[in-house]
Specification:
Bound molecules: S-adenosylmethionine
Number of strands: 15
Strand content: 5-15%
Order of helices and strands: EHHEEHEHEHEEHEHEEEEHHHEEEHHH
CATH topology of the largest domain: Rossmann fold
CATH superfamily of the largest domain: Vaccinia Virus protein VP39
Length: 412
Amino acid sequence: MDELLTLSEASEYISKSKETLRRWDNEGKLLAVREPMSNYRLYKKSDLDTLFGGFIDLKIKETVSNYVEPNHKYSVIELFAGAGGLAVGMEKAGLKCVALNDVDKWACQTLRNNRPNWNVLEGDIKQFDFTEYKDKVDVVTGGFPCQAFSYAGKKLGLNDARGTLFYEFARVVKEVNPPICIGENVRGLLSHENGKTLQGMISILDEIGYNVVPVQVLKAIHYNVPQKRERLILVGVRKDIDIQYDYPKPYKRIYNLSDALKKGDLFSSDVPKSEGSKYPKSKIEVLDLVPPKGYWRDLPLDIQKEFMGGSFHLGGGKTGIARRIGWDEPCLTLTCSPAQKQTERCHPEETRPFTVREYARIQTFPDDWQFAGSIAQQYKQIGNAVPVNLGKEVGYSIVKFLNEYYNLSKPK
Ligand SMILES: C[S@@+](CC[C@H](N)C(=O)[O-])C[C@H]1O[C@@H](n2cnc3c(N)ncnc32)[C@H](O)[C@@H]1O
């Protein structure tokens, strides 16, 4: 269910007056829904986030640095590695990838092309045994695709989860026995099956000897990523270790699309030219009429109706449709296919989707990180990734934890 805010809450959330919000509702710019009994206006939080950057956490006051120097050589096994967003982030934080697994041939090709020395294990995770790494690796990470568990009992055990990819993640953690493990996922895991899926995961990690730190959803915009993307982080700390894990602290500075694509503080040059997909002619004609930061509601009414078809009357903000991104805002979450219907993120000045290299910049991949496969395969790998800079900050938090751990226990 979408979170709803009252008029006062919405006004505070996006720092606009209640009067402005009422006017916008009347003009159709930001539609409220009505509370059935009182008829009071209620606003969908996701609409506010998408349109007005309410997504930004205004309470963050100071910019701090999460950077920590590793005291020892730390190693990571990265499962469900994709094109390496998280792996590159970990590498930037100073962790060495000793093995990476993915079933996707093109993702594995990307990893091999860019890091010929990495040990890329291509194929279904079920086929791989990791016992050779037992007690030799500091962290196991993985963005396992989310699947429901079918169980009737009170508490889910590892064996009950057989057949799911989370089972495989937990199995590898058990085989390797690292001090810390990190799962990453989409926010939707919080509410998947009314929270039962996440609870099941926590109870499985408990069973295999890991305490789960209270789960957090990190907003990439607070970790030097010019994109409103979120990642849920699930951290397990081996039960014999009495050290607190701290999430990376958010930065106040927010980067925008201009920072992503132009020379500046985030990148030392303009984005390199590259291939990209195109919109069909009919979509170009419509999107040509949308201004930067605008969306389908900015179209003339007759075109709105034609473009939206049946969904025109369905209500709700649908603020991601026919959206043109502005230079001075972070990009909306990139999807796996940039010309996909109803999730347009049009370039600010040209009526086209972002190119492959623009996509990679918005995910903070370095310009020299090459993606293998067709254009569609490349977009998919980039769209699936953890933003590199978010991965780097999570990496620092792991380094900090491991430094403390090895200070107290045997030096490596
Ligand atoms: C969300 S992506 C991970 C992205 C990656 N963490 C990154 O930062 O770039 C999930 C990955 O899981 C992989 N995957 C799905 N099923 C798998 C399986 N059975 N065995 C291994 N990998 C699998 C997919 O190919 C995909 O690349």
